[in-house]
Amino acid sequence: MSDILIIGSGISGLMAAIKLAREHRVKVVSSGYGYSSLSTGNISFLNSSFCCGDVISSMGKLLKDHLYRVFDLVDLASIPPVVDILVSNQDGQNRYIPTAGGFFYPCYLVQRTMLKGDLEYLKRRRVGVLHSHYLAGSLKYVAEQRFGVSLDVEGYPYDQRRNLSEQIKELRRAEVVGIPPLPVIDPDLTHRHIEELEESTDKEIFEYISLNPSYPALRLLHSLRKAALQAGASLEAQDTGRYARIVGSRTMDNLVEAVYTLSCSYQADYYVLATGNLISGGLETFLDLEKEEVRAKEPIFGLPVIGEPEVAFHLAGDSSSEVTRSLAQGRMSKNVEDGPIRGTGDRKNGMQKDKGHLATMKTSILGSVEFRVEKSSSHPITRLRAKVDESFRTSLNNLYAIGSLVGGCELRGASDISGFSYLSGLALGSRLHL
């Protein structure tokens, strides 16, 4: 039995903890929720444009350089969910759940409170959405144009100041009604509230995927944390009242000896890094003043990073503590001995297309220098990733990395990073025999 420290309490870190805690002493430390708290709360493997029929069969046909294949994750996708808040589709295909944005999102593992929102279920019923008439019209249009389904749907403006049950009753024709996610984190309590609404309105109810804050995502993390604790892991994360931000490490002979917060240190036999990508703070971009170039780094262990840091830097600014930035104004600056370094850019559209390329700027002491990168299907901010081998081992022998830290968004044909985070945590937890 080994001591394992998992840094990060998102989907991947908690999935690894659930599996590893059955045979080892596992501690999970985290400084906050991270990007997982902004997800849909469901797990997606492949989107509709990439998936033909059965999701698992389609995953098996992916190119060899796809990350699902590189890390041998395909077979794990058919394993039943590790928490009962999620439900898989028995026919192996995606479910398509309505969103507040007016489209249907492909999900493979779906939260129980969203199941009745599946397009396959809705197409045989009269549907209502508690949001706006615009949403109803958009869902009807997308269902017909994208899926060839004639959807009978009406909308009613949602007012959070009014009684929810009374608003649902205003959708008199509807048999099934979609509502915004309830502001409840406990999954069991959420399910009871839905049942009470169904009983009081005599209608079937589902939650549609909404904008942040994502309460379904928080419910998923709540369930994963509960499962990790039941498996025997100890947890120091934001929702426990005990949380720690790891700020540095000590290594020797290619091994991690300890990691540090501002007030204490942690030691273990093995370490698992699940801190997320640039959005979550697991990676950083910064301006190297000596070399006059933009670089990316993994801030705790200094792991090698793959990707295009120049483009990410232009879009997100300097994500380290060295440079203050204002994303809203598109400016960043730092006062140094030689004077201020400034970078400016139009972030309204993220990047500007220019004759088949994405044009952006690199900031240096000498000024702004234009350069080009080839177009890509994924966003440069999320395409940065830490380098690991096929077993998720990093350049340090007792350190592993999982989740969006190593997945980025290179998952061609995937809806989001949740599937890779889920499967990479499951894979490491199942295969790591220490």
Description:
This protein has twelve helices and 26 strands. It has 434 residues and is of the alpha/beta class. The chain folds into three domains: 3-39 and 217-279 and 385-431, 3-Layer(bba) Sandwich (FAD/NAD(P)-binding domain); 81-212, 3-Layer(aba) Sandwich (Rossmann fold), CATH 3.40.50; 291-381, no CATH class. Strands 11-2-1-15-26 form a five-stranded parallel β-sheet, with helices on one face. Strands 8-7-9-10 form a four-stranded parallel β-sheet, sandwiched between helices. A three-stranded antiparallel β-sheet has the order 12-13-14, with no helix packed on it. Helix 1 (11-20) runs parallel beside helix 8 and helix 1 (11-20) packs parallel to helix 12. The longest helix is centred in the middle third of the chain and has 17 residues, at 215-231. Residues 321-378 have low confidence and may be disordered.
Strand order of the largest sheet: 11-2-1-15-26
- Could you name the CATH class of the largest domain? Alpha Beta
CATH superfamily of the largest domain: FAD/NAD(P)-binding domain
CA radius of gyration:
23 Å
What would you call the shape?
globular
Tally the helices: 12
Counted up, domains total 3
CATH level 3 topology of the largest domain? FAD/NAD(P)-binding domain
* Structure classification: alpha/beta
Into which percent range does the helicity of residues fall? Answer: 10-25%
Known CATH architecture of the largest domain: 3-Layer(bba) Sandwich
Uncertain regions spanning at least 5 consecutive residues: 321-378
**N/C terminus separation:** 8 Å
Largest sheet, in brief, is: 5 strands, parallel
- Count every beta strand, where a strand is a DSSP E run of 2 or more residues: 26
What is the strand content?
25-35%
Q: What's the average pLDDT?
A: 81
